[in-house]
Every structure is written in structure tokens, then in C-alpha cells.
């Protein structure tokens, strides 16, 4: 089945450049290009894309991309979104991640190779997760958002300290993605170091293997962080 990409960018030369880079790397992909919010919103409601690439500003709408990400999350939760914008990455990367965008690239600050590497990494992660049953994934791991009860893995309670539960929740929520050490520092209240994060992850693995000896879903990504395999 042909994978479908939505490219939402109001600047036509930029849209053509990004589409050209994608076609050069993966000529078999189908790329639908949209240049304004209304057309993009209609397409997103009509089609299920494997990956969406969008700008934040579209025409005179400064935050049109935010509205589109929210629409994607409501319509097709879990669809990978790559934001490519001129807005400062230092400010907007965290905002976009909070909206569940998978990654953020700042225009003029990345090369063709960096763009393609990021795009293909996201596409591969999307393909890995495509065949997974979302219901099964949710049923396998149950987390208490108020952190008043222990996590449950396949019906068995997992005894973990609060920080480890937060790391577990972050990895599971972003399954299929690499979660960087720096992102995990956000949920570690003290001892924000790579060694400390690794100790928490080791404790998570041990607790899950106590409940399920075959558990191996959390993998190390050298120099970067960890990934919950889909």
C-alpha cells in the first residue's frame, strides 16, 4: 500500500523544495500538497495520512498549524506530525511537542540531509506502529494519571517510585519514537543526569520483567535516549 504524506506549506517554493527532497529520497510516496488552512483541514478530515508535515503560519493566520495539529489529534490520534517553521525552535519546539507534534525543524537552520533523516526516522516509526493494535497497547499497560495507584502491566501491578512511573508513562506515550535524555529530565525532579535516568529505566525494566519475563519493549538508543518499541 502506498504511503501518503500531507505537506501543508503556504510558501510554494518551500513546498516544492521539501516535496522534491522527499521524492528524491522515497519516490514511491504519494505527496499531497496543501497551501492554506481550509484546504488542508478538509483533506485531513477526508483522508488518513501516514505523516503530516506542516508550517505553523499559513497566510495571515499566525497559528493555523496549531489548529491543524489539534484537528489531527481529534480525527486521527497518533498520526506523526513534523513541524517545519521559521518560528524560533528554542521557543516553539516545546510548544509543538506539548501538542503531540513528533518533531520540529526551524527553517534555514537545517540541511537537506538533516530534513531527510528526520523525515525518514518518523516515517519508519509510523510504519512500525501501523500494524499494532492500539487497544492492545492500552490494555497491556495501564497508568493512573493522578499517580495514586501503581501501574498495571497485563493485569499485574508494577511497584515503581513516582519518578519511574513518570518516565514509564513518557516512554509508553511516545512509543515508536526516540525519547531523548533531555526530555526525560523534565519528569525527573532531582538528579537530572543521564546516569540517574538510566537507573530509573533499569528499575522499570526489572519491575516489568518481574511481571512478564519476556518483556523487552524498552530499548537503548546510544547517545540519544530510549525508545518503547511499537
Task: Name its key features.
Rossmann fold; 3-stranded antiparallel beta sheet; alpha/beta; 5-stranded parallel beta sheet; 47% helix; 230 residues; 11 strands; 2 domains
What's the SSE blueprint?
Layout lengths: L3 E5 L3 H14 L4 E5 L2 H10 L4 E4 L9 H12 L5 E5 L3 H10 L4 E4 L5 H19 L3 H7 E2 L8 E3 L2 E3 L3 H12 L4 E3 H5 L8 H18 L6 E4 L3 E4 L2
Parallel strand pairs: 1-2, 1-3, 3-4, 4-5
Antiparallel strand pairs: 6-7, 7-8, 9-11, 10-11
Protein name: Response regulator
Keywords: DNA-binding, Phosphoprotein
InterPro entries: CheY-like_superfamily, OmpR/PhoB-type_DNA-bd, Sig_transdc_resp-reg_C-effctor, Sig_transdc_resp-reg_receiver, WalR-like, WH-like_DNA-bd_sf
Overview of the structural elements:
With 230 residues, the chain is of the alpha/beta class. The protein folds into 2 domains: 127 residues, 3-Layer(aba) Sandwich (Rossmann fold), CATH 3.40.50; 94 residues, Orthogonal Bundle (Arc Repressor Mutant, subunit A), CATH 1.10.10.10. 47% of the residues lie in helices and 18% in strands. The chain contains 9 helices and 11 strands. Strands 2-1-3-4-5 form a 5-stranded parallel sheet, with helices on both faces. The radius of gyration is 19 Å and the shape is elongated. The two termini are 20 Å apart. About 3% of the residues have low confidence.
Amino acid at each position: 500500500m502506498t504511503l501518503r504524506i500531507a505537506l501543508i506549506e503556504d510558501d510554494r517554493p518551500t513546498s516544492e523544495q521539501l516535496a522534491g527532497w522527499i521524492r528524491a529520497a522515497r519516490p514511491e510516496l504519494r505527496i499531497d500538497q496543501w497551501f492554506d488552512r481550509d484546504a488542508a483541514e478538509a483533506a485531513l478530515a477526508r483522508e488518513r495520512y501516514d505523516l503530516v508535515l506542516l508550517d505553523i503560519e499559513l497566510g495571515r493566520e499566525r497559528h493555523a498549524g496549531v489548529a491543524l495539529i489539534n484537528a489531527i489529534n481529534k480525527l486521527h490520534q497518533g498520526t506523526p506530525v513534523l513541524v517545519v517553521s521559521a518560528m524560533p525552535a528554542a521557543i516553539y519546539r516545546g510548544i509543538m511537542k506539548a501538542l503531540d507534534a513528533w518533531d520540529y525543524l526551524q527553517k534555514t537552520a537545517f540541511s537537506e540531509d538533516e530534513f531527510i533523516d528526520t523525515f525518514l526516522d518518523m516515517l519508519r516509526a509510523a510504519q512500525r506502529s501501523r500494524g499494532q493494535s492500539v487497544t492492545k497497547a492500552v490494555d497491556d499497560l495501564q497508568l493512573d494519571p493522578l499517580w495514586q495507584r501503581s501501574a498495571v502491566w497485563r493485569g499485574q501491578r508494577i511497584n515503581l517510585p513516582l519518578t519511574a512511573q513518570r518516565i514509564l508513562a513518557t516512554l509508553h506515550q511516545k512509543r515508536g519514537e526516540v525519547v531523548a535524555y533531555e526530555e526525560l529530565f523534565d519528569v525527573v525532579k532531582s538528579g537530572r543526569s543521564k546516569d540517574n535516568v538510566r537507573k530509573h529505566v533499569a528499575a522499570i525494566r526489572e519491575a516489568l520483567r518481574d511481571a512478564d519475563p519476556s518483556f523487552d519493549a524498552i530499548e537503548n538508543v546510544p547517545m540519544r535516549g530510549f525508545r518503547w518499541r511499537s
